[in-house]
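Continuing the batch. This is chain 6 of the set; chains 1 through 5 are on the previous pages. Same settings as before, nothing changed between runs. Recording input and output for traceability.
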Amino acid sequence: MNLLTKDELRSLIQTSNDPRVSIFLPTERAGNEIDQSRIRLKNLIKESEEKLKKTSMLDKDIPKLLEPLEKLVNDSMFWSYQNEGLAVFISKDNFFYYQLPLKFDELTVVSNRFHIKPLLPLFNNNGQFYVLALSQQEVRLLQCTRYDVHEIKLEGVPSNMAEALQYDDPEKQLQFHTGTPRGSHGSERSGMYHGQDIDHKNAILRYFRQINNGIVSYLNDYKVPLVLAGVDYLLSIYKEANVYQGLLQEGLTGNPEELSSKKLRDEAWAIVEPYFKEEQKRAIDLYRQLAGTGQASNAIDEIVPAAYNGRIKQLMISTGFHEWGSFVPEKNVVTFHHEENNDSIDLIDFAASNTFLTGGDIFIIKAEDIPEGKPFAAIFRY
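Output for chain 6:
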């Protein structure tokens, strides 16, 4: 299992009366280091076993619970196809593993809920963007994060200009010669067009307006960053057609048909990364403005109840820290533990999970960049 969707993450967050084991480790893609990954997992299984012995689970049931993990250790084919990191989740009724483009620190957590904080960089709410690759032969809309890319099929949107203009007057229909030589930098040249009284630019503008209508309908007026990819001539025309507020002025110039979805994502990231850093900066600045007013906090015993009750608008955390304790929802009471024990949850993970479930924004930030020197801070909705 390689991909992790938001729906799957929501399922992982659910609590249970039975112990749940979460394991994270860095993995190697090739070479002799592959064996190191197997050894890491084997050691983390042993650590999980020791932690399970401190729970209510009977000792005789522990080997059966961990059996699927032991099989993974001995599966040579499995270790031959790895990504940057491996996340494993196992309970009495569930067993999931994800090979992901994140270099995890080694970690095992045993609790009544799966530990999901190391996964959050994949779903960082300030990390989703789109790429619209434009040409007269095809259009591709790519949904992207820093680590993933999926092509989106827009309903009711023509896949190329010929389809868009098929109902125009046949005497005025453009006939594009796809064999026209490429221009500089691999770009398309304008091509040869035939047809009486045809305005080439207006024809493309009509085509792009149909695409833009599909973009606006799909994104539902959310201001998610959109990066255009195409030759300069087409990008300038599309900007005339555009009414989507999230369109970034800077685009990728050149023929996008020559680039894979992954390559387009990687090149677009260089454009959107400063945008996301500015969003992060605004969250930090807003926190500083609201600190001391009751509308923001960096006290985990205030953040946890607020997250549980859906009050967090923005949460800033650093994933490399843990705050062990417990939370009683009925009383909104947080208790701190000096060290992890069989009744502990990571309170930062709990706050992040509930913020995710209730639609708050989560910013993954280096600890030294979070205001007031703590690895967590929150801005409240009310």
